[in-house]
Amino acid sequence: MNVSHLECSLTGKTYPPNELYNLSEAGKPLLVRYDLENASRTLTREVLRTRVASLWRYREVLPVVHDENIVTLGEGWTPLIPARRIGQQLGLSGLFIKDESLNPTGAFKARGLCLAVSMAKELGVKKVAIPSAGNAAGAMAAYAARAGIEAHIFMPRDSPAANRIECIEMGAHVTLIDGLITDCGAEVARRKDAEGWFDLSTLKEPYRIEGKKTMGYELAEQFDWDLPDVILYPTGGGTGLIGMWKAFDEMERMGWIGKQRPKMITVQAAGCAPIVRAFDEGRNEAPEFENAHTVASGLRVPRAIGDFIMLDILRSSGGGAIAVTDEEMIAAAREIGAAEGIFCAPEGSACLPALRKLIAQGRINADDRVVIFNTGAGIKYLEAFGL
To answer: Taking a C-beta distance cutoff of 8 angstroms, is the pair 75, 114 a contact?
Structure first.
């Protein structure tokens, strides 16, 4: 709609819009850039009061050109819920949970796959493929079904049963792989050209970021254009972290917010913490985390292609990276459920023990406004809770 060009996240090389891309020539993620001056003529903070309660309220800074190619199930505009009881226990006056479990297919993955599939439809794609540990697969299956696009999904054999069933019942072609999401990705890469699939892997196409960035727009709007002090975000591939940071930059350039940014905190599983390890070691890239294991399937990403972008965001925001154990995640899910009535996925509940560690380290002030992201519905992870 207002896309000016695409840009390599490493080299800055530009690419023309409205063409089908995976990675840049440098093998790195592509970022969508907009004519924000033109976008802001019709997209203003004031006009948002009258807009649809979905991520499509930010239409002018989303890449789909023609409305008929929008594939939607009502994603986005999820609630920002004050966590008063847990906040009181922790000595925090402003603790909030951004509850992404209320998206279609029960997770934040709906945001990214909504945009990826919409753009695939616009650009004439007939078949899509994805490696996924669970929730991204379910989201792609749903949006591909709605778009009439053939879906091919590769999942680790031990992915949650709810995700596997979800994909099958929505008509996707599901292949189970003995291994991790990286092994699934290798299978997609090996077969995609011969099979005629377009690869929708995390950060290997430009548009999942555009859906995920709307979490940043929503936070700003829900906080009346004054961003929170700290964001704790469970991080596997990191699309949401990168997307929100991109949204903050776009909003500043449109004059909606100032230069203040939240401290961005990546939360990972102790059994798969490549970004935490790289951050602690002062690296600019995160080598593969060997023997990755965790009940939080969305965090079982041993190598992320956007590692260098995430590490730069964490450092430039004054944030950090923290790992928690599976046992801490499960205990925290029960604590959040009993105190706030939200049944978090293990990835989301991981943010609570991470927050406790930050408080113990003196890195969180009592009057800070802190947002923890629940990225999915606990009901989709019954095996993790011993059921």
So the answer is: yes
Token duo for residue 62: 């989303």
Neighbours of 124 (CB within 10 A): 8
CB count in 10 Å sphere of residue 359: 17
DSSP element (H, E) containing 31: strand 30-34
Question: Which residue(s) pair with 134 in the sheet?
Answer: none
Query: What does the pLDDT look like over 114-142, one tens digit per residue?
Result: 999 999 999 999 999 999 988 999 999 99
The encoded tokens of residue 272 equal 């798969």
Residue 135 has a pLDDT of 94
In tens, the pLDDT along 351-367 reads 999 999 999 999 999 99
CA-closest candidate to residue 157, choices 131, 128, 186, 188:
131
The CATH number of domain 80-107+208-385, selected from 3.40.50.1100, 1.20.58.220, 3.20.20.70, 3.30.70.120: 3.40.50.1100
pTM over 0.85? The answer is yes
- pLDDT tens for 367-376 read 999 999 999 9
Tokens of 201: 């892997």
Burial of 325 (0-12, 13-18, 19+ CB in 10 A): middle
Q: Six-digit token pair at 132?
A: 């996924």
Reported as half-sphere exposure (CB side, CA atoms, 13 A), residue 210 has a value of 27
Q: In whole angstroms, give the CA distance from residue 6 to residue 235.
A: 24
Q: What are the boundaries of each domain within the chain?
A: 80-107+208-385
Exposure of 234 in the CB half-sphere (CA atoms within 13 A)? 35
